[in-house]
Design goal:
Helix content of chain B: over 70%
Number of domains of chain A: 2
Strand content of chain A: 25-35%
Number of helices of chain B: 11
Structural class of chain B: mainly alpha
CATH class of chain B: Mainly Alpha
Largest sheet of chain A: 6 strands, mixed
InterPro entries (chain C): MetI-like, MetI-like_sf
Number of strands of chain A: 20
Oligomer: heterotrimer
Structural class of chain A: alpha+beta
Chains: A alpha+beta, B mainly alpha, C mainly alpha
Strand content of chain B: under 5%
Shape of chain B: globular
Subcellular location (chain C): Cell membrane
Largest interface: B-C, 91 and 88 residues
CATH class of the largest domain in chain A: Alpha Beta
CATH architecture of chain B: Orthogonal Bundle
Number of strands of chain B: 0
CATH superfamily of the largest domain in chain A: P-loop containing nucleotide triphosphate hydrolases
Radius of gyration of chain B: 23 Å
Order of helices and strands of chain A: EEEHEEEHHHEHEHEEHHEEEEEEEEHEEH
Protein name (chain C): Binding-protein-dependent transport system inner membrane protein
Number of domains of chain B: 1
Helix content of chain A: 25-40%
Strand order of the largest sheet of chain A: 6-7-8-3-9-10
Distance between the termini of chain A: 28 Å
Keywords (chain C): Cell membrane, Membrane, Transmembrane, Transmembrane helix, Transport
Order of helices and strands of chain B: HHHHHHHHHHH
CATH topology of chain B: MetI-like fold
CATH architecture of the largest domain in chain A: 3-Layer(aba) Sandwich
Radius of gyration of chain A: 25 Å
Organism (chain C): Celeribacter baekdonensis B30
Distance between the termini of chain B: 40 Å
Number of helices of chain A: 10
């Protein structure tokens, strides 16, 4: 069995009575791109800072390649961080910034210059080497920050919302470059972000945190298709939630008995009747019609509002029981639907598109 | 100011107020300058002739030169110690969170509100009890107490402009706390440290009450001025005043330039290769 | 329970103490020490012309029963309060001009010029005022030439006030200008947009918003004037006996240390009380 690169064991951090991070267990493998995601204040940045040694854990262990590094001061750890505001040193040129870490590690002059030049070249900022960092554009500054950390040839690179200072266009370009760099270098990236698009498009695995705990850990697909909890479903967004008791009807149909009627599900194997649970349906799997009789799970509702998001439209619906439903339609489907706000419509979906939350956990427990 | 915002009184009235205030502030300074070059013993509007004879008299006065030597030695030592203490405290307040932090700040910043006569009295009593009164050392120790709050405030304000991540970012790249301080914090704080030293020097050079109470026979320049004030008209005070103004004003302006330049350069500095 | 080893902790503490400790130590020894001694000394007694540690209330009862002490106390307090108010009024138009009528870049230059005298030879400036106002001085000469009395202007409240202004104007100007400069311009525009006239904007927007800074200006002018004794002696000419003068006289007059200590503590008490009241008022919020 190969040694995991970075391990967090039962990691806790409290500030006074406030518990920022609670009992985090996490293993990061070599060469992996791991994203940690969650709303602000969920403890994601604190977790990252503990990895870098910028915060001391209140309890628990941090191991790098099996070695416990709790006691290692920041400056002796080899876990460079790309800061949210980049923290480029303003009194130094681009080159001095990139050489900084090598100087601190007492790398001899010629090697230092060579490594620095190599990385400036690689990130396409060699032309600005002698500029003051304040004179660079957002994207260039971003590259300097990356070069400054990567020149140290770390085993793991920590990134704290590194793209949040960039405009949308630049951010997307940098995402592509980050992904390519990580693939080429084979370095482990631990990437903290609150942006779904960054986490889902970049990471091999995504950690969703809430209130100091890990809510779910899995591949982006896993999380998107099979959210484990209401929180994850709501956080990922574009998902409608129904709750009720699991039930098997006399005809042998399985579903949840919700305020909006019996909502069938496809996978009866994983079901234990009588448990209260949540059903999630993704917005792009919901069909909206003006007439009833289209599908198995059909709920009459009122069209509340339409929200245009590029080529697609999100329809916000509300059932008689007050459940909110979001459905995603193509532009042309909306035109065909020709419904106005306040009008009665029908939302329907296939049983196999309904996902029971926490089902995998249920399976594991059973 | 936006054009739609009109003032309650016409602009010239406010400017008249501004002029009046600056006249009150600078007239005594200018008059000292003018009268220091007048040959007349009694300063009046009809000046007979300009000369430098009072300057010659001051520089020939052994007592005055001795006082000047004392003053410079005291001001220099005060600047050194006060800046060190002030920077250390400012850095501690900036960098760490600790128990009693607010108290330290309050202690340092409330000192200047203690009436100087009361402080002098307390200092005199204290130094006589430990057998230090009447020495140059005791004046320095007391002046450090008076000057440090200014030094600390200047350094603290400057440090506030340094994003906290910079220092940790340096450590994250392998710099020890000492290296991070030297390579990141000190270059940033350097202008403020310079300004703090200049202000501390100026404060000490100008201080008369404590020096008068505590110093005993060791006179500083302001103390000789104070002693002269009690006597008759003496034109040499104008000379000392002019010299002191020139010295302290240039130091205070130098300090202000340092602080202003550094605030500006922080935003747009082009470093030539 | 800590996850760090004792050695790491110790090193961290030492590094922290290196920066945090020096100033508190110096101030504990050479500021708190003298001030505490002053408090202790107010309870000491003078026996056979020698100051003796004691717990005696004689200095307190002696000083507190002096009628002229109380008249001096209130005169001192009143005079500095009047000076503080007048200096604030005198400075206000200038601060207003600096805050609203000149460009921010120029404002810094003006503020620098206003503050610089605070650090320069106060004594010499008082001396200059003395020869300005004294008999045959520049101002009486000017007055004489326009047909007024050419008598000395010294030993008057005007002279004392000019001394106080010399001392306190720089601080008041800076505090007022910063306070006025920070008044939200959008609020002012909003008021105009709702039909406020310039004088209403001044009264209902600018003055309330700048109140903390303006009050601090008055407070500092008061603190400085109250503690001042050079102007009171050489410009007021002893017409205005103030507490600091009393204090210096007591000390120079011989072994009256405990009495001087009591007077000092009274001064401090008055200062602290005034500061507390002013600061509380300055930062009071309307509504809950």
């Amino acid at each position: 069995m190969t040694q995991p690169l970075l391990e967090l064991h039962n990691l806790n951090k409290s500030y006074g009575t406030f518990e920022a991070v609670k009992d985090i267990d996490l293993t990061v493998d070599t060469g992996e791109f791991l994203a940690i995601m969650g709303p602000s204040g969920c403890g994601k940045t604190t977790t990252l800072r503990m990895m870098a040694g910028l915060e001391e854990p209140t309890r628990g262990d941090i191991r790098l390649e099996g070695q416990q590094i709790n006691d290692l001061p920041v400056w002796q750890r080899e876990t460079p961080l790309v800061w949210q505001n980049l923290a480029l040193f303003p009194y130094m040129t681009v080159r001095e910034n990139v050489e900084f870490g090598l100087r601190m590690k007492k790398v001899p002059g010629p090697e230092r210059q060579q490594r620095c030049a190599e990385w400036l070249e690689r990130l396409g900022i060699a032309g600005f080497a002698d500029r003051n960092v304040a004179k660079l554009s957002g994207g260039q500054r971003q590259r300097v920050a990356l070069a400054r950390s990567l020149v140290l040839q770390p085993k793991v690179l920590l990134l704290d919302e590194p793209l949040s200072a960039l405009d949308a266009h630049m951010s997307i370009r940098m995402q592509g470059e980050l992904k390519r760099l990580q693939r080429e270098l084979g370095i482990t990236f631990v990437y903290v972000t609150h942006s779904h698009s960054e986490a889902f498009s970049l990471a091999d695995r995504v950690v969703i945190m809430n209130a100091g705990r890990i809510e779910q850990l899995g591949t982006p697909q896993d999380i998107f298709l099979r959210p484990k909890s209401r929180f994850v479903a709501q956080f990922v967004g574009g998902i409608s939630l129904f709750s009720g008791m699991l039930k098997t009807t006399r005809e042998g149909k399985v579903g949840i008995d919700s305020a909006d009627g019996l909502l069938q599900i496809a996978d009866p194997a994983s079901v234990q009747t009588g448990t209260k649970c949540d059903l999630a349906v993704r917005a792009d799997r919901i069909n909206v019609t003006t007439q009833p009789g289209w599908g198995t799970n059909e709920v009459p509702c009122t069209l509340m509002s339409e929200e245009f998001a590029g080529a697609v439209v999100n329809l916000h619906l509300e059932t008689a029981a007050g459940t909110g439903i979001v459905a995603q339609l193509q532009q042309r489907d909306l035109e065909r639907l020709s419904a106005r706000a306040g009008q009665q419509v029908y939302a329907s979906w296939h049983p196999e598109d309904g996902v029971l939350l926490g089902v995998t956990a249920l399976k594991a427990a059973a | 100011m936006n054009t739609h915002l009109k003032h309650a009184l016409p602009a010239w009235t406010w400017f008249a107020g501004l002029t009046l205030v600056f006249v009150i502030l600078y007239a005594p300074i200018l008059s000292a300058l003018v009268f220091s070059f007048s040959v007349d013993r009694f300063p009046s509007l009809d000046i007979t002739r300009f000369s430098t004879k009072w300057y010659a008299q001051v520089f020939a006065d052994a007592r005055m030169l001795e006082a000047l030597k004392n003053s410079l030695a005291i001001a220099l030592s005060t600047a050194l110690v006060a800046t060190t203490l002030g920077f250390a405290a400012a850095y501690a307040d900036f960098r760490f969170r600790f128990f009693g932090q607010r108290m330290v700040l309050a202690l340092a910043l409330l000192t200047p509100t203690v009436p100087i006569a009361v402080l002098s009295l307390a200092m005199l009593a204290f130094f006589s009890r430990i057998g230090l009164s009447g020495t140059v050392g005791s004046i320095i120790v007391a002046h450090v107490v008076v000057a440090t709050p200014f030094a600390m405030a200047i350094c603290r304000l400057r440090l506030e402009q340094l994003p906290r991540e910079f220092e940790t970012a340096a450590q994250n790249l392998g710099a020890t706390p000492g290296q991070a301080l030297r390579l990141i914090v000190l270059p940033h704080a350097a202008p403020a440290i310079g300004a703090a030293a200049l202000i501390a020097f100026a404060v000490s050079l100008d201080e008369y009450a404590i020096a008068w109470f505590v110093g005993g026979l060791e006179q500083t320049v302001p103390v000789t001025v104070l002693n002269t004030l009690q006597g008759q008209v003496d034109p040499t005070i104008h000379v000392i005043g002019t010299l002191a103004f020139a010295a302290t004003l240039s130091m205070v302006f130098a300090a202000q330039m340092l602080l202003l330049r550094s605030t500006k350069s922080h935003k747009n500095k082009e470093v030539s290769p | 329970m800590s996850v760090l080893s004792a050695k790491v902790r110790l090193r961290r503490r030492a590094w922290f103490a290196l920066w945090a400790a020096p100033l508190p130590i110096w101030f504990a020894l050479f500021f708190m020490g003298p001030m505490l001694l002053l408090i202790a000394m107010s309870f000491w007694s003078v026996q056979n012309y020698r100051l003796t540690p004691d717990f005696s209330l004689s200095a307190w009862s002696y000083v507190l029963s002096l009628d002229f002490l109380w008249s001096t106390f209130w005169r001192s307090y009143g005079l500095s309060l009047i000076s503080a108010a007048l200096v604030s009024l005198l400075a206000f138009p200038a601060s207003y001009a600096m805050a609203f009528l000149i460009t921010p870049a120029r404002r810094l230059t003006f503020l620098g010029l206003a503050l610089a005298p605070f650090f320069t030879s106060y004594l010499v400036r008082i001396y200059s005022l003395q020869v300005f106002l004294g008999e045959g001085g520049v101002l009486p000469q000017l007055f004489h030439s326009v047909g007024l009395s050419g008598a000395s202007l010294l030993n008057s409240y005007t002279a004392l006030f000019l001394g106080h202004a010399t001392l306190t104007l720089p601080v008041v100007l800076v505090l007022q200008t910063l306070a006025l400069g920070n008044v939200d311009r959008t609020e002012m525009s909003a008021a105009v947009n709702l039909g406020a006239r310039p004088q209403h904007v001044l009264r209902h927007i600018i003055l309330p918003a700048a109140r903390p800074g303006l009050s601090l200006g008055v407070l500092f002018a008061f603190l400085l004037s109250y503690a001042e004794f050079v102007s009171a002696t050489y410009l007021g000419g002893g017409v205005f006996q103030t507490l600091p003068i009393l204090l210096t006289d007591l000390i120079r007059g011989g072994q009256q240390w405990p009495r001087a200590a009591v007077v000092s503590l009274l001064m401090m008490a008055a200062l602290m009380l005034t500061s507390l009241v002013t600061v509380a008022w300055a930062y009071r919020q309307k509504g809950n």
